[in-house]
Amino acid sequence: MRVPRVLRALSGLRVRLVVAFTLVAVVATVTTGALTFREARTGVLQQSQDTVIEDFRHRVNTLVPNYRFPPDESGLQSFANDVSRGGRSQNWRVLAAYRDASATSRPGDSFRELSQAMRESVRTRRATVFQRVTRDGHSSLVVGMPVTFAGQYGTQRRASGLEVYLTVPQREEQGYVDALVAAIERATVPALALAVLMALLAARGVLRPVRALRRATRSIAEGRLDTRLAVQGSDELADLSRTFNETAAALEGSVAELRRMEAGARRFAADVSHELRTPLAAMSAVTDVLDEDAAGLDDDTAMAVRLISEETTKLAGLVDDLMEVSRFDAGAAALHLDDIDLAESVRRTLASRGWLDTVRTSLPEPGALRGRVDPRRLDVIVANLVANALRHGAPPVRLRLRAEDDPHAGRRAVVEVSDGGDGIPDGVLPHVFDRFYKSDSARTRSEGSGLGLAITTENVRLHGGTVRAANHPDGGAVFTVVLPLRPDGAKAPVRRAAKEEQA
Q: What is the reported pLDDT for 353?
């Protein structure tokens, strides 16, 4: 299943670098903003709180000596009013309490911000106590302090019983905090934009050598082994480029050596095969004469003559196969196409080798299946497959020729050769088309050269077809050849030898 291009793009290195930089920027910006906000908010509130408490203390200490003690109800009211006038913002709300009596600077003020716990703390600790309270979405600072007999605030003095409480709204401080939040939010957007820009620049710098490495790798895969990368800098990517160049140089040297050795082996096989043909022709002529006179010889001599004749024939076939393989390797094999009746060509192949009575055939009617193929190479393909089935399989050997239509490849001819033997072992099946391959159990000492199926494969490839081997579910091996049928007048594709195609 192919991954859609969008998903591949989203999972690319560029996107991951941009996302990583953006996440780092977001985390850094949010963390810095949060810490800055916390410190700034604490500073603003602390400064406001200290100012209010200091002013409150000073106001109370200044006014207390001016009132009679113990105070009566009217005195508490006057004291609360006088203290409330000391606020810089003129928004002080004051509660003065003495034992069970109390008075507020604003008539009917319930002083809901003041908690019972805070009153208990002022009474018991004899210390200035403050608390921030939020009600109905508004924040206020509540301060409470006791009045001692010493006239000057001190925690070790005996309390007079007079308690003074102050409530100050913190609208101005809240405005400062809101402005700080807005400033942090405004600074976040440019920070993120800068982070994305830096991520794109960093991704570009990182991906440039990566793209060059990818192009160089593809070039190496396409066979251009002299491809090298320009090494810049001394970082990890530069080390990777140097390693790639070293690897490419070593690979180029190894491939050049292998090609040299392969070319030498091909020349050696071709030269040996060519040189053997002349003495083999003479040996074949001698064995023909000896075969004619074998009837007049004694049994041992006649047996030796027949053995020499058979081995000479095998050697001649092996030399012919080697010559054919050398032509494939040299790229000298060519197709000579002709428009023929495929069924008739198959019949002639079987008849010329005396296999008509041995092989069960299923062929189309004469003239029903025609195509442009190389008649000689088609003969080699069919002969090698049938000979392989007769030699290594078991009766019955069947040959079936049919046509099929492929929506992409067009009309094709299919040749199937099967036998009734035990099939091909699983360990042998992947190697049946390899040159000189013989399975230990079936072909250790057989008549074949080990090149028949390899030559068949090369001839099929020259036609642009395919060949495969398999085991039939009911037993026996099945070889299937598929050849494209070009209409009359169509040109065959130009094909090189197998070795060059693989390179």
A: 93
